[in-house]
Amino acid sequence: ANKVPGIRAAMCLTETQARLARLHNDANALCLGARLQGVDLALAVVDAFIEGAFAGGRHSGRLAKIAAAEQERSR
Length: 75
Description:
With 75 residues, the chain is mainly α. The chain has helices spanning 15-25, 39-51, 60-73; strands at residues 9-11, 29-31. It is built from three helices and two strands; from the N terminus they run βαβαα. A two-stranded parallel sheet has the order 1-2. α1 (15-25) runs parallel beside α2 (39-51).
């Protein structure tokens, strides 16, 4: 999924991973492991991902680097 420009996918097995993926990486696509999580945990991970928000600040530089790499690749 991360090969598509503008997509920042994160494989999240826990609520903490989902929250941090949104907070630090501004992830906009969530990947779940069907055999690695039960239904209840998967739903909790989805909730944490949806409720999360990008923190910005010191993490914005990372997104700028990703955007620059995407532009370079598209040439």
